[in-house]
Amino acid sequence: MTSSVQAFSEWLAATPLSMQIKTVDWIIPTVQTIHILSISIVMSAAAMVDLRVLGVLSRGQSLAAVAYRFVPWIWWTLIVLFLSGSTLIIGEPGRSLRNPAFILKMSMLTATLVLTLLFQRGLRHNDRFWEDSPGRRIGGRLIAALSLLFWVGIVFAGRWIAYIDVHST
Predict the structure, then answer these.
(1) DSSP characters for 110-147?
(2) I want to staple 105 with a disulfide (CB 3.0 to 4.6 A). Which of 11, 19, 57, 157 is the partner?
(3) Using one digit for the tens of pLDDT, what is the confidence trace for 81-132?
(4) Rounded distance, CA 100 to CA 97, Å?
């Protein structure tokens, strides 16, 4: 599999789009800025929901009200993150596609998206779903704690991408 990822990375790096992204001086810094600002939006929205589930913030508002206010920010901003992240990968595929930090980041992102969908699904059927029983409260708190842990892990793994040299592996 590594050789096919390497071959794809080399092919992608040789495409005109990749060459354009690499050679225009302002593209990568601009896209990185958009990516980082988008991460802060997602992290803020996720933290507001997760900390409400954990009973740390916004106790005066219902869980559903907090979720309905902040969860859309997560999904819409993930679109921006997908586009900006894809642009960064196309511009520098060798830096990320074989990078263990990138793979870890994408794995945690996938798990976090599943948790967010699971959480949202419960609320879609019943605004008090995560508050109706002790078991659901524990389940909601577990989802929130894992979500916070994974979001922080995603940020750290994303940062580590720059410091892991995949060319020497």
Answers:
(1) HHHHHHHHHHHHHHHH-TTGGGSSHHHHHHHHHHHHHH
(2) 157
(3) 999 999 999 999 988 898 999 999 999 999 999 999 999 999 998 999 998 8
(4) 8
Q: Nearest to residue 48, comparing CAs of 68, 34, 33, 78?
A: 68
Instruction: For the full predicted model, state whether its pTM sits above 0.85.
Output: yes
- H runs (alpha helix) in 14-133: 16-23, 27-53, 63-91, 93-96, 100-125
Give per-residue pLDDT as tens, 7-18: 999 999 999 999
The CB density around residue 139, as the number of other CB atoms within 10 Å, is: 17
The answer to whether the beta carbons of residues 166 and 68 sit under 8 Å apart is: no
Distances (CA, A) of 58 to 47, 53, 54, 62, 145: 11, 9, 10, 8, 16
Question: Tokens 């050679």 correspond to what residue?
Answer: 23
Domain spans, the chain: 24-163
